[in-house]
Amino acid sequence: MGGLPSHVYLKEVGPRDGLQNESQWISTDDKVAWINMLSETGFREIEYSSFVHPKMIPALKDAREVGRRIRRKEGVTYSALVPNMKGLEHALEAGIDGASVFMSASETHNLKNINKSIDETYPVLSEVIQEAKHAGKEVTGYVSTVFDCPYEGRIAVEDVLRVCDQLIASGVDYLSLGDTIGTAVPSQVEALLEGLASYFSKDKLILHFHDTRGMAIANIMTSLHMGITRFDSTVGGLGGCPYAPGAAGNVATNDVLYLLNGLGIETGISEKRIQEASIYIQNKLGTTLPSRSVAYLKNA
Amino acid sequence: MGGLPSHVYLKEVGPRDGLQNESQWISTDDKVAWINMLSETGFREIEYSSFVHPKMIPALKDAREVGRRIRRKEGVTYSALVPNMKGLEHALEAGIDGASVFMSASETHNLKNINKSIDETYPVLSEVIQEAKHAGKEVTGYVSTVFDCPYEGRIAVEDVLRVCDQLIASGVDYLSLGDTIGTAVPSQVEALLEGLASYFSKDKLILHFHDTRGMAIANIMTSLHMGITRFDSTVGGLGGCPYAPGAAGNVATNDVLYLLNGLGIETGISEKRIQEASIYIQNKLGTTLPSRSVAYLKNA
C-alpha cells in the first residue's frame, strides 16, 4: 500500500484523557504501578495526569503525587495537561517534560468547558505556553471539537484554522486535533487536513480520535494517507463516558497498534505489553474496556 | 472526498451469519418478527437462514418454518445459505429469491468446515449452483478466509483467485469475499482487490468483514476507494463467537451505515429502523451487541 509513513509516534493519554472520563476511582498506588507498566511498553510519550483543579476532575486529584512517584524511563517524555499558571506551577514541581494546554474550536464548547470565550482563552494559554517554553518544556495545544460540536454541530475548517494559528503563534510545538465526540468520518478528516496543509507542517499535527461511533481506525487510516504520523490513544480504549456505558472512549492503543503493525508501520511499541497494561487497568476498573483486541486476546 | 461510489448495496446477513454464531436460541416467532422488521428498514437483500443440516447449526434448525412464515416485501431479495442439493430442495420449498453456496480459499479451513478438499467441493457446489440458476435464483458464492486462515495463516491472492475463478465458471452471480476471522488490515484488502481486478468485474464482488479486531470499517473504506459497492453486515454487529465473549461478529450494519451516510453515499436504509431492529434482537439475546452505535444511541 503506497503513500504511508514508515514510522508513527503514538502518545498514550490513558492516564489523563482515559481516567478523567471513567467513573471509577483508581488509587494513586495503582496509577503509579500502571504508568510504570506503560513506561516499559515502548511509548516515547505518556500524558500521565492533569493539573486542573481537583474539584473539576476528582479522578485526577492526585496528579502531583503521581508525578512525584512514577519511575521515569530514559527516552520517554512525561507530559501533563495544564489549564493555567497555577496548574503549570504544580506540574513543574511534580516534574514534566511536556505541557499540554487545551481549548475548543467551537465557541459554545469552549465556553461550557473553560467558562471563557475563545478570545478570552488565548491570553491565558499564551502565558502558560510561554512560561512552559521558558522552563524548557515541549508544549502541545489540544484543540477540541475540530469536526463536530455537541452544541453547534459541524465546525468550519476556518474556525479550526483560526484557533490553530493562534496557538502556533503563541509558541506551541504541536497541535492535537480532537474529534472530541467521536463523530467524524474519513471525508471530514481529509477536508480538515487539506484545509490545514498549506498553513502547518504535518509534523506538527497530532490526531486525537474518540471511537464513539467506531470510525476512529478508518479516520486514522485516512490521516496516514494524508501524511500524519502522530496520534493520541489510550490502552484498551479507556475513557468511555460514564453516562453512556458501552460507548467507547479514545481510540484504543491496541487497535491502532494492530493496524500499524499490519501495515508494516513501525512504532517501537510491544503489543504484548500493551495487552498486559490493558488487562491491568481493566481489572482495576472492574469493567470491560471497549478495545476489540482486548476482548479478543483475553478470550483467545 | 473523491473516488467514492454514489450508492452502496448492503446485504443483511444477521439472521444467518449473525444468529449461527450466537449461543442463544431465538424462537421461530421472534426470528419471523425480527426479519419482518428488517424487511421494513430499506434493505434490498436479507439472508434469512441457512439450510444446512439442523445438527450442524441448531440455532437455524427452523429455516424451513422461518422461510414459510416471513412476510415478503416487494423489492427485497430473500436469500439463504445452501450447502448441498438437499439444502437447496428445502430452501426452494420454503421460498428463496437467492441461494448462497460457500467454500474456503484455505485448503485446511475448507476441510475442517466442509469435510472435503477444495477440489472435492467444486462438483458439489457446481450442481447446486446450476440447479439454483435453473430455478431462476440469483446465486452468491461465499469464499471464506480470503485474507488469513486460523490454520494456515496468510492466504495467497492466487489461492483466492483460483477458487473465485471456479465459482464464476460454475455460474455464481456474485462472489462474497470473507475476512472470516477478522484479521485483515487495509493493505491486505487493497492487495486482494488489485489481484482480482483484472479477472472479475467489481460489480460482482461483495466484501464480507468480521470486526474481531476493529478493522472492518477501515477495510470497508479501502474497499470503497477500490470501487466496491456491495457489503455484507449484521445489525448490531451480531455474531460474536460464543467462545469469546466481547469479541465482535460481523461488521455492524449500524456502523457501516453511519460511515456511508457521513460520506454521502446512498443506501436507501433507515438508520432509525436499523437501530430498532438492533435493540429488538439485543433484548431477545439478553446481551450487549458490539456495535458502537447501538451502545451509543441506546444511552444517548
Most extensive protein-chain contact, per-chain counts: A-B, 43 and 42 residues
Structural class category of chain A? alpha/beta
Highest-level CATH class of chain A: Alpha Beta
Q: CATH topology of chain A, which one?
A: TIM Barrel
Strand content of chain A: 15-25%
CATH superfamily of chain A: Aldolase class I
Instruction: Describe the global form of chain A.
Output: globular
Offer a few descriptive terms:
homodimer; 300 residues; alpha/beta; TIM Barrel; two-stranded antiparallel ribbon; Aldolase_TIM (chains A, B); lyase activity (chains A, B); HMGL (chains A, B); metal-binding (chains A, B)
What does this structure look like?
- Two copies of one chain form a homodimer.
- The first copy, chain A, has helices at 14-20, 28-39, 63-69, 85-94, 107-114, 118-134, 157-170, 186-197, 216-225, 253-263, 271-285, 292-299, and strands at residues 9-12, 45-50, 77-81, 98-104, 138-144, 148-149, 153-154, 174-179, 205-209, 230-233.
- An eight-stranded parallel beta barrel of chain A has the order 1-2-3-4-5-8-9-10, surrounded by eight helices. In chain A, strands 6-7 form a two-stranded antiparallel ribbon.
- The two termini of chain A are 29 Å apart.
- Chain A contains twelve helices and ten strands.
- In chain A, helix 7 crosses helix 8 (186-197), helix 8 packs parallel to helix 9 (216-225) and helix 10 (253-263) runs antiparallel to helix 11 (271-285).
- The first copy, chain A, has 300 residues and is α/β, with parallel strands linked by helices.
- The mean pLDDT of chain A is 94.
- Chain A has a single domain, classed as TIM Barrel (Alpha-Beta Barrel).
- The A-B interface holds A 1, 4, 184-188, 190-191, 211-215, 217-218, 220-222, 243-248, 252, 255, 258-259, 262-264, 288, 290-296, 298-300 and B 1, 4, 184-188, 190-191, 211-215, 217-218, 220-222, 243-248, 252, 255, 258-259, 262-264, 288, 290-293, 295-296, 298-300.
